[in-house]
Specification:
Its EC number is 4.2.1.24. By secondary structure, this protein is α/β, with parallel strands linked by helices.
Length: 336
């Protein structure tokens, strides 16, 4: 990666001898010197899996994205595979929610059933599962509630059980997004104790309390019934704290760390990439997707160019992989 501090302009090698426009003259020249490129294997496709069969519900704030039952999702996953996508991220939407999110760790829960079906049909597709309780709890918070407060330590056991049930169903990677302290360690210990030492953890390490998750909460039906998530997700103003979050997750056993959202947090991606030597994921979240779609639908932005520019910027900032709702479109554009 280029680093501004290594680019020297030596006296005698300045204009008119140096002309940076020489290498921008044709598309072939530009391609030859291009530093960053997006390819299908960089992309992770997120999917909202609804319990049941033959269910397909459009999501108003995310045009082109749907909640769908696994039988219908399978054809989209097959298309993704054919387009070169090698990883998907699953979110489950159960029919029944309760105080303790019991469907999250039920062996026959929506995600567990979906993972089995997908791995059965497309064993090579990397199936990543989101490990959180908010889609499964009646109050919509990511952990257990006592006296109006999200309980950290008491939630860990349920979150670890959730991860274990996903892995038992065949998940290739688990991705805890709940932002409880100690969640990576709790999951690592339980997976190891149960013989799943080989299963990686993709930690949503620096996850901010962001308004850009708005459309997702409509899609996943996971808006908190009271309060907000600021007592566990990060303050958008902080970047040094992001380094501590990542550091903690690395020590606890994370294999991949994530920054989320992506576009308004490119500085965070860049700092995390500089400081840590493990793969960095970035989540191009629902609100970022919705903004581009809305502008494109109004004719205010060229959708294809906007999406490619945003994803290239996220990769240029340091992301090794990008979770994006635009993934299928991008692969279609790349294949001409
Ligand atoms: C679950 C979770 C959320 C997202 C991913 N996992 C929502 C939230 O924290 O409120 C957001 C993804 C998106 O906006 O695309 N905790």
């Amino acid at each position: 990666m280029s680093d501004a501090s290594t680019i020297r302009t030596t006296a005698g090698y300045s204009f008119p001898r140096v002309r940076l426009r020489r290498l921008r003259r044709t598309e072939s020249l530009r391609a030859l010197v291009r530093e960053t490129e997006i390819s299908p294997q960089d992309l992770i496709l997120p999917l909202f899996i609804r319990e049941g069969t033959s269910v397909r519900n459009d999501i108003a704030s995310m045009p082109g994205v749907r909640q769908q039952s696994v039988d219908l999702a399978l054809s989209e996953i097959k298309t993704a595979w054919e387009l070169g996508i090698r990883a998907i991220l699953l979110f489950g939407i159960p029919d029944h929610k309760d105080e303790v999110g019991s469907q999250a760790y039920d062996e026959h829960g929506v995600v567990q059933v979906a993972v089995r079906e997908i791995k059965d049909r497309l064993p090579e597709m990397i199936v990543i599962t989101d490990v959180c309780l908010c889609e499964y709890t009646s109050h919509g918070h990511c952990g257990l509630i006592r006296d109006g407060d999200v309980q950290n330590d008491d939630s860990l056991e349920l979150l670890a059980r959730t991860a274990l049930s996903h892995v038992r169903a065949g998940a290739d990677i688990v991705a805890p997004s709940n932002m409880m302290d100690g969640t990576v360690l709790a999951i690592r210990e339980l997976l190891d104790a149960e013989g799943f030492q080989h299963v990686p953890i993709m930690a949503y390490s620096a996850k901010y309390a962001s308004c850009f998750y708005g459309p997702f909460r409509e899609a996943a039906e996971s808006a908190p019934a009271f309060g907000d998530r600021r007592s566990y997700q990060m303050d958008p103003a902080n970047v040094r704290e992001a380094i501590r979050e990542v550091d903690m997750d690395v020590i606890e056993g994370a294999d991949i760390v994530m920054v989320k959202p992506a576009l308004a947090y490119l500085d965070v991606i860049s700092k995390v990439k500089e400081r840590f030597d493990l793969p960095v994921a970035a989540y191009n979240v629902s609100g970022e997707f919705a903004m581009v779609k809305a502008a494109a639908m109004n004719g205010w932005l060229d959708e294809r160019r906007a999406v490619m520019e945003i994803l290239t910027s996220i990769k240029r900032a340091g992301a090794d992989m990008i979770i994006s709702y635009h993934s299928l479109d991008v692969c279609r554009w790349l294949s001409g």
